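in:
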């Protein structure tokens, strides 16, 4: 079982008002920051949201130490309030129990891990707590600044010119872009990704449904030897029903750095060990519905080791001149996006250096 340390904080301007939350996860010396916020919330909700989103990152049961400066959140568990609320059907004897939705969610997440809660003094000498505070305040300000004031004044005035501008689809839109997540429903939670359905409010106050795939991201590496040859892998992709030619790649694990993932996948799939590895680009391949971010690296100074692939991973390692791969991208023979991007960028770098 992995040991994970989590620092959390929440902030709110107005209480209720625009708010932000932040968390820092530390595992095996690797840090991961997560941040977010809402346009209309409370401080306690942001303090709860921070550990919720942090625990969602963990895909396997872990020993977790959570540090928070919120007495409200920490005492829910240290004073065992939350266990009594759960037994009572999420009700209090002496009044309404607020934030029931978040309390239930946090209670369920903590049940998946061995969690110990720690209270820290806010705005003191804890560097991680101070970092979380700064990040949470930044997001609070971001949501505060995104309130569409011009929209409200326009609706109040209802002048003919302003309404014409709003309703005319031929007029370029220059207003707010932010969409607020009102409700979230998990429809699938698998080994590789999670699928959610959001109800979001748009800048004009209307609502839409959004279907989003949450993915932890991946790393890919283009290995180029001293003679300008690139080591590739052929593998069957059941999603498209084809055998594709790709560069080595894989999913970034929780707590793993992207460059470590690239080195790991290179050695696992090809047996190659990089003398030097450098970042090329990071990009979102399908941001319309998926949060996956792919980090692409170039590896040189290659040495041959022994591949040690995952069980039931079947692929062929093949070698092509980089110049040939450029032709294959241009004539459509290579259809994998990360591979095409890596080939064209590696070619530009190598040719400009030569």
């Amino acid at each position: 079982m992995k040991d994970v340390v989590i620092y959390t904080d929440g902030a709110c301007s107005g209480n209720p008002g625009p708010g932000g939350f932040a968390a820092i996860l530390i595992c095996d010396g690797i840090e991961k920051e997560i941040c977010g916020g809402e346009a209309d919330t409370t401080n306690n909700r942001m303090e709860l949201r921070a550990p919720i989103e942090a625990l969602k990152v963990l895909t396997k049961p872990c020993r977790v130490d959570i540090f928070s400066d919120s007495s409200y959140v920490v005492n829910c568990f240290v004073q065992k309030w939350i266990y009594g609320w759960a037994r009572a059907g999420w009700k209090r004897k002496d009044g309404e129990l607020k934030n029931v939705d978040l309390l239930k969610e946090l209670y369920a997440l903590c049940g998946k891990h061995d969690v110990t809660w720690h209270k820290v003094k806010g705005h003191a000498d804890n560097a991680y707590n101070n970092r979380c505070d700064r990040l949470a305040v930044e997001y609070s300000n971001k949501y505060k600044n995104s309130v569409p004031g011009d929209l409200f004044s326009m609706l109040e005035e209802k002048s003919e010119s302003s309404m014409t501008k709003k309703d005319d689809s031929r007029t370029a839109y220059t207003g707010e872009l932010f969409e607020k997540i009102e409700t979230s429903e998990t429809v699938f939670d698998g080994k590789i990704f999670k699928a959610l359905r959001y109800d979001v409010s748009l800048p004009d106050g209307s609502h839409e449904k959004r279907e989003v795939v949450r993915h932890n991201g991946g790393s890919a590496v283009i290995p180029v030897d001293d003679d300008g040859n690139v080591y590739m892998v052929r593998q069957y992709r059941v999603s498209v029903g084809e055998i594709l030619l790709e560069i080595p790649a894989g999913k970034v694990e929780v707590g793993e750095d992207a460059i470590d993932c690239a080195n790991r996948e290179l050695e696992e799939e090809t047996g190659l060990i990089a003398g030097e590895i450098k970042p090329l680009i990071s990009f979102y391949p399908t941001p319309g519905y998926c949060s996956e971010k792919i980090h692409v690296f170039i590896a040189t100074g290659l040495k041959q080791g022994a591949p040690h692939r995952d069980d039931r991973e079947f692929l062929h390692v093949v070698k092509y001149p980089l110049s040939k791969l450029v032709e294959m991208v241009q004539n459509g023979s290579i259809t994998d996006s990360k591979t095409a991007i890596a080939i064209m960028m590696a070619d530009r770098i190598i040719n400009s250096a030569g």
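note: Residues 178-215 form one domain.
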